[in-house]
Amino acid sequence: MRKRVVIAGSLVLAWVAPAFVRAAEPTIVEKALAASQAANAERDAAATALAEATDRAANSAAAVAAAEQIVATAKDAAAKAAEAAKAAGGDLAPLAKDLAVKATTAAQAAEQAVAAAKAVAQKLAAEKTAAEKTAADRAAAAKNAAEKVLAERAFAANMALRQAGAERDAAQKQAAAAAEAARVAGEQFSAAQQAAALAGGESEAAAKALAEKAAATTAASAQAATEQDAEKKKAFAETAASLEAERRALEQAAAEKTNMAKTAADNLAKAKAALEQTSAQRTAAEKTAGERTAAVAVALDNLAVAEAEAMGGLKPIASGQWDYAKARHLLARAGFGGSPEDVAKLHAMGLHGAVDFLVEYHRQPACTVTVDIRPPERPLGYEARLDSSEQNRLNEERTNRERVQQALLRQWWLRRMVETPRPLEEKLALFWHDHFATGYEDKLYQSNILLKQNELFREHADKFDALLRGIIHDPAMIIYLDNHVNVKGRGNENLGREVLELFSLGRDQGYSEQDLRELSRALTGYTYVPNTNQFRFNTSAHDEGPKTLLGRTGNFSGDEAIDVILGHPSTARYAAKKLFEYFAYRQPADELTDRLAHVLRSNQYELGPMLKNLFLSEEFYSERSRGQHIKSPIELMVGAIRTLKLGSVDYGALDWQVQNMGMTLFQPPNVSGWEEGRYWISANRVLLRYNGVANLVEQPQVDVVGMVQGKAATAAELVEYLAGACLAVELTAEQKKTLIGFVGELPPGDQWTAQRDQLNGRLRALLVLMMSTPAYQVS
Amino acid sequence: MMSPIKIVTRREFVRYGAGIVGVGAALPNYLIRGAAAAETAEPGQRVLVVVQFNGGHDAMSALVPYGHPEYAKARNVTRVKDEEIVKINAELGLHPNLAGFKTMLDEGTLAALPGVGYPNPNLSHFHSTDIWHTADMRGRLCPAGEGPFGWIGKACDAAYVETVAVDGAIAVGTGSTPMAMWGRRHQGIAFDAPEAFGFFGNRGDAKRGEAYKQLHELGPNAPGPLSELHYVSQTALAANATSDRIRTLAKDYKPTIEYPNTGLGRHLRTIAGLVAGGLSTRMYFTFHGGGFDTHVNQRPHHDNLMKELNDAIVAFYKDLGAHKQAHRVLTMTASEFGRTVKENGGQGTDHGAAAAMFLFGPVKPGVHGAHPSLKDVFGGGGDWLKPTTDFRSVYATVLEKWLAIPSQGVLGQQYPLVDFLA
């Protein structure tokens, strides 16, 4: 902890915006760091003082013990002397008596000495206690100061982000203004070009007319000169003179046009210069805006790092590493995948934007798919009072009715997973269904309480503490784990056991069989009302006596026991590990899940910050994670539907298929939920999965042409694009070659729309080949 | 790339492969292909077929303890009457619809074990089925790593130590793999109907089929042999290789007799085709569906179940006999529990404990073990038969004496064997 603080302190100076570093005043981080160092010094001094006080107290206690030994010896001597005095006769009697008196006096004196030594010892012990308290206070203060450094650093990073954001916004504004100026200059340039062209044309026309006139004038003069007939000669001369006058006029006009053309050319040159200048300005402003945007990404990265440090979380990747493949990975894991377009949208949000979009799902509209599930017409056990034929008839009726309701419930949830605008919410609800696994068969036979439980998982999907509190009040869980028969004096440990073993601390993670019994006692009386299926706390069945749970003692209720459990470090560790394995990869190093657990606990079991830390982390995007998760049947099928953008889905068939693949919603195999990973894969299940996906792809509504139009022109580009969008692992060169060969020559892009149906047939076959593969089974 | 060594049988695989790959390690594809695809059974290789009765069988109506006076007292509507019974001795007789079983008994190919069960019975269908499938009282509540593993899956693990026999066990009549077949390394193969076991995404397009084949032959596209992708790739290879063979064998099979058109009849016909076709599978698992959970109106329903059972088993062994395969196929029935001695108010019976099992094929014919007393009963309603033979003793006998697989590792301890095999 201390080491990390020091590292953090040096890093922060490098990270915070230059303004913070250059300031004459020390930054808040520097102040916090100085305070932390001072607190550390005080803590160390207090520890030394405590050690000394402990020594002194020990010495003094030893002195008391020695003095007590002397008292005992003296008393013993006095007693012996008294006895000797009694026994002594004659002359010796007075001497013996005197000795006895002296011995008694000596003993009394020794006792006084002990009392004095005890007083000193008490004082020193009190001083030691005080030193202990001081040392504890100083240690706490040092810890607080260290945490403050991290918090301040996160704060500083946040401020830097704000500053960077403001600078980006300003730069973007400037870039927009410069772009507008450049646009205006461009228009002016165009106008000037037109004017110059026009003036140039007119000038040329005038010059041409002048030349023609001059030629005519010269011709007339020549004729006048050579003509013999005087009258005709005169006429020619007059004509020549007249032409000459016209020529002069034209000469004047041409000069004017030439001038105008020159002016227009000048204007054009000016407009061109203006355009060049504004364009350069626009480019510069855009560059600045780009830089400022990049700086915001860096500031976001820094903030994520600072927050991770402050919370002790996992190391994040940088925005610069964010790419399309990572966006696809994130959408597949934090949700149920999506179409190539969905992935592109997520990619465009940037790393932090994408993670926020998924984790802060409350900002998205809620899914509106609902289901109508009715409570049983008669409470369970009602039939027991009837004669057997009536009993059997009603049993059958109930069974049939509930079977239909179960199917409705499963289909409802599948549809939510397909349609929700908040994929992480459903993904988490599915996680909690697996974590707090409750099955319909054998005990419940009631769909309505499973719906109620499912709503609990969704409402508190991102709050583990609320779920743990909620689950001991949940009628479905109470029935499933027999807590309705857990009553004072006749305990049933089923729920208590699973709360510790599966729901909170985890098997062998720091609780004993005795803790389990004590928790079960705390849970007595947590029952339900059979007719209404409402939770009921039955005070008369509750054991109100004191319990000792995980080292704490009190007259705990079940809810108070949950508080004790939430305070145990194993609880956050176990939840963090399961969540890590669900979203990233199996069997992570303890160090990683400890970090995540720290984030979870420092946020009071709210999942949001932990999930953000996870979805930003290097581990989440590592080779160990990507392409290393075998999709559950639901991830496979719901994912394919979302990828293919199927608008109309047969949810009955979908439910049937995922059940065949081994996943029946509301019927996990047992209270520990589904086995994940390779459990999903067997010879027949692989082919069931292939066929299931192929059936989805082959639906006429799947428009692959629409999906790829404008993204790819050749078969090679097409294969590359679709593989990048659909597969978590790179295809080998040979596999690509096979697929490209299968697609063959594509028609020119402008004919795709006309040939849509035929082309879709071919491309759907390509998708079948791509998705009916081992590669599509992993994400 | 690996050098393209052609290895076509599992024996060769073991010879070449054992030195290359450790147990449980990922196998190179060509080895999996070789091991999975085209292996043929060794001559005389023994085969076990398990027929599961889901729901809890009232075996007292199949192997009827008519010699016990309590039987007639406890049963009224569900009773198989003395005059109907096909008697096999003074104590026990067969349901009238099991007349074919009597013939098999006389021919020396039927054995009956009355009173098979286990102590402290669990009366949940779900949990007791798990117990029968895993031979572990914890069923699926085993801690991770310890299970749940099925007895057939564990038997495959024990039989194929150096390699993985993808088709070591096959379940017919179910889309999902029965827990009995879940091994540590072996998953078995399960399909509802053989014609539906395969990849059908090619839609009859030969060009697409060729591309599919190429894509799957090119091998896994992940570097790590322990990666999930590698695992999926291998399983897919095995599935593609075996499914084609299984479909072909089932499609081309010419039974010598017409099987009854019932679930069990169809499943046994499929199994006969695979056995006669020479598939190297050693353990088959299938179901007699139709519902043995006869709480209500038991007699007519159970009569029908017995007829279906009789007709399917008789046809199966006649057909196997005609194909000269009957000597190497042992069949046994199993159900998660028996039923109460007394009838309930609904002309049926409720969940009980011990029940009889039947074995067919190369057995020591006759009844092995005592039928439980109908007087000295136990349980919640005081109405359950006490087991006289532990079902794990039956498993142990079949494993050791029929399949030559050591049973202790499979069952967790050594159970006494029962002398019912020829």
Nutshell version of this structure?
The complex is a heterodimer of chains A (779) and B (422). By secondary structure, chain A is mainly α.
Layout of strands and helices, then pairs:
The complex is a heterodimer of chains A (779) and B (422).
Chain A: H1 2-15, H2 18-22, H3 28-87, H4 92-226, H5 230-311, H6 324-334, H7 340-348, H8 350-359, H9 388-419, H10 423-435, H11 447-459, H12 464-471, H13 475-480, H14 494-503, H15 513-522, E1 526-529, E2 534-537, E3 547-549, E4 552-554, H16 558-566, H17 569-583, H18 590-602, H19 607-616, H20 633-644, H21 651-660, H22 683-697, H23 704-708, H24 715-726, H25 733-743, H26 756-771
Antiparallel strand pairs in A: 1-2, 3-4
Helix pairs in contact in A: 1-4, 3-4, 4-5, 6-7, 6-8, 8-19, 9-20, 9-21, 14-15, 15-16, 17-18, 18-19, 20-22, 22-26, 24-25, 24-26
Chain B: H1 10-17, H2 29-37, E1 47-53, E2 63-64, H3 69-74, E3 86-87, E4 93-94, H4 99-107, E5 110-117, H5 125-134, H6 151-159, E6 169-172, E7 189-191, H7 206-217, H8 228-252, H9 263-276, E8 283-288, H10 298-322, E9 329-335, E10 355-360, E11 366-367, E12 389-390, H11 391-402, H12 408-411
Parallel strand pairs in B: 1-8, 1-9, 5-11, 5-12, 6-7, 6-8
Antiparallel strand pairs in B: 2-4, 3-4, 5-10, 9-10
Helix pairs in contact in B: 1-2, 2-8, 4-10, 8-9, 9-10
